TrEMBL record:
Protein name: HYPK protein
Bias (Gly residues) ranges: 23-32
GO annotation, biological process: negative regulation of apoptotic process; protein stabilization
Protein encoded by which gene: Hypk
Species assigned in the record: Eudromia elegans
Region named Disordered: 1-86
UniProt domain Nascent polypeptide-associated complex subunit alpha-like UBA: residue ranges: 93-133
Entry-linked Pfam families: UBA_HYPK (PF19026)
Stored Gene3D superfamilies: DNA helicase RuvA subunit, C-terminal domain (1.10.8.10)
InterPro entries for the chain: Huntingtin-int_K, HYPK_UBA, NAC-like_UBA
Coiled-coil segments on the chain, per record: none
Top-rank lineage group of the source organism: Eukaryota
Amino acid sequence: GGSGGMAAEGDVELELETEPNGAGSGGDGAGGRAAEKPRKHDSGAADLERVTDYAEEKEIQSSNLETAMSVIGDRRSREQKAKQEREKELAKVTIKKEDLELIMNEMEISRAAAERSLREHMGDVVEALITLTN
């Protein structure tokens, strides 16, 4: 295991080499950091105060919030269902490619937006355009 011993020696040497440099640069770094620290610290403290105030207000509201959230939750799931139904209905509407391109060019809107308005007007390009221009 002679080579093993050599490796260990190498490690020790490396450690010795890095130490003075590390201490040197560490000293500089610490100096530099120390100068920056107070500023960062102050803003941090200010932020902390703001966060604490915010947290306290939140606690007061949380009971109302929970009630509100459940109400919103119910409403949202209903809306979601209605939306899905609507999307299904809209998806059934047949639209012409020419109409789609016409709206895209006229209104300078994305394909998705053009298709959407066309479907909402049951494929009636005139209605779709009128709504979009208003």
